[in-house]
Amino acid sequence: MKEFQIDTNEAGQRLDKYLHKLLPQAGNSFLYKMLRKKNIVLNHKKAAGNERIAGGDLVTLFLSDETFEKFSSGEPVITTGAGSLDILYEDRHILAIHKPAGMLSQKAAASDISANELIIRYLLDSGQITKQQLRTFRPSICNRLDRNTSGILIAGKTLEGLQTMAAQLKDHSLQKYYCCIVQGNLTQPGELKGWHRKDPQKNKVHIFSKRQPDCQYIETRYRPLEQYDGYTFLEVRLMTGRSHQIRAHLSCAGHGIAGDPKYGDASVCQLFLTHASVNRQLLHAHRIILKDGREIVAPLPADFLRAQQFLKG
Whole-model pTM? Predict the structure, then answer.
């Protein structure tokens, strides 16, 4: 027999959905058979599976250890690879980290170590979540950054945190600001609007001035912070959050980001590599402002500062 008390991260879902997370290798027929035979009960009573579970509810499984292990697929696998977190902000529900360039936001392959895995490991090591809880709820990042874009990643530590951040991202009440160095001299604030289409096979996007089939509307605002000879240090506010939006949108407007091998100028990439040891796009998720006014800031990384020093001569 095994008993599981429902916590706040698991509450609100149907019992059968919870059981599928607890026993991911079990099929519907097995689970509903166990419910009919009262081998799985809710609060010591027979259940149909469509009940909404609440915090404090007790789910009891009258299953052998062998059966439970067979259908639960064992303990959750958590990476033990090298890596650490630069934590910018943390409360009960959310965590904000400074992701360095080169780190994946989420896994692209099974062997990858991403920010998501490092966050889960941190929560385990600090006792904020247990391996048992990971069977039915997994903390996760709420926004994504390209591998070679540095800056702020936000993760939901709890269901409430995930839901709150998802809502703020959806209604744009969470403000996202980036810093970048672009080609050309921009002296006034500006606004770019267009239509965005991604080619998943080439992992590249195309920007159009007028609406096209299979396109999504995008909006990008910017203001210049500093001028150099032929380059501008910009703060960019992302009004919509599409893949590669800032990189592609600025490039389409004739202001490619320095160091960007995909949308920028190859000769500019080589220039910054040679003189400032920059080998990635100079784009940094610098600050966010939450709906309640809290502000989180990620300082400019070392390669960004080297690039500025180079441009200042």
Answer: 0.87
